[in-house]
Amino acid sequence: MVAVSDEAEDWFHRALENEERDGDGDEARATSTDKTVDSSGDETVDDNGDESGAVESGVDEGDVDDSLFEDDFGAALQDVETPAVGDTTDTEVTSDPEGFDDLDFVLSGSDEPDFDEEIDSELPRLDLGIEGLDRMIQGGIPERSLIVAMGSAGTGKTTFGLQFLNHGLEQGERGVCITLEESRDRVINSATEKGYAFDEYAAEGELAVVDVDPIEMANSLASIRNELPSLVDDFGASRLVLDSVSLLEMMYENRADRRNEIYDFARSLKEAGVTALLTSEVSPETPYASRYGIVEYLTDAVFVLQYVRPDDFRETRLAIEIQKIRDANHSREKKPYEITNDGISVYQQANLF
Predict the structure, then answer these.
(1) CA distance 113 to 67
(2) pTM surpassing 0.85?
């Protein structure tokens, strides 16, 4: 089981980078550790090619760099007024999606979803902010749900998370993004390129973007579980994204340890009272299961993003499917989508051949 160092106990209080951070974030991340974990999580290899066992016991106390995070997270978020949360609105669906004229799909001929319109509960709900996909969900996702977007590389999992956060921010909500893959600056720049004003939201204290090394997070997971609910509550966040949970899972070689740690972390997210979205790599064997087969059982909603490759080897498509949503009716059809400069668009009226 991964050991928790004393120095890592205050990880989250040091995690939020200040707004004047220099441009060396990406380079610092690239050199933060000599160890990498292969896709199976079985071995790690340092830069010299020496092999060692998987990261099971974690990083020694001396390996946690106090300078990794410059500012106190709590101090950065204190004395911030919580804005009122605006009402969500339905997204208009394009009946004739641009760029799909020559693809193999047919329009259903109806603007309405193909499932029962009667809402089955009075739980507060919210929209994801993804065009077309929200129309596939009756009434929206129940608030405080734990969601996972699963897919292989290039299917738009990170974009899914950024779009989910941005929609909430546009409605006057607050959000937290914890990234294990990219630097804080890169996340903000990527969102800004899509037209999401993450730089402004961060400067105004509406958004907290926290970049954490996955090894440090694994070693600090006990303190994260204890601190996260109160810190998120103090910040007033209603949406949270973790990109990606697969990197965290890789830090545990023992299957039982991995399952227990991820279960406890998922429970802490539920206790935080936010609607949380995790991204996850899929299993090499099937696109319908996560890499370690854990998160889909711990979450309330599962979205599967995948490639569809036709037998005639024509152009590869992207398709999305809702595997489950607790306490909500939803379409079970597989629908085409594309990733544009503005984000993800799901063509709810189209059917794949």
Answers:
(1) 52
(2) no
45 contact partners, CB below 8 Å, separation of at least 6? 35, 36, 38, 51, 52
Domain boundaries, the chain: 112-353
What would the DSSP string read from start to end of 149-201?
A: EEE-TTS-HHHHHHHHHHHHHHTT--EEEEESSS-HHHHHHHHHHTT--HHHH
Enumerate residue ranges in the chain where pLDDT < 50: 1-9, 17-20, 22-23, 25-77, 79-120
297-323 b/e (C-beta count within 10 Å ≥ 16 → b): ebbbbbbbbbeeeeeeeeeebbbbbbb
Burial of 123 (0-12, 13-18, 19+ CB in 10 A): middle
Hey, what are 189's tokens?
């720049």
In a 3-state reduction of DSSP, which class is residue 227? helix
Query: 105, 137, 106, 94: which is closest to 318 by C-alpha?
Result: 105
The per-residue pLDDT for range 36-45, each reduced to its tens digit, is: 444 444 444 4
Identify the H or E element spanning 147: strand 146-151
Tell me which residue of 189, 192, 138, 130 sits closest to 161, measured CA to CA.
130
pLDDT tens by residue, 176-199: 999 998 999 999 999 999 999 999
> What is the CATH T-level fold of the domain 112-353, as seen in this structure?
Rossmann fold (3.40.50)
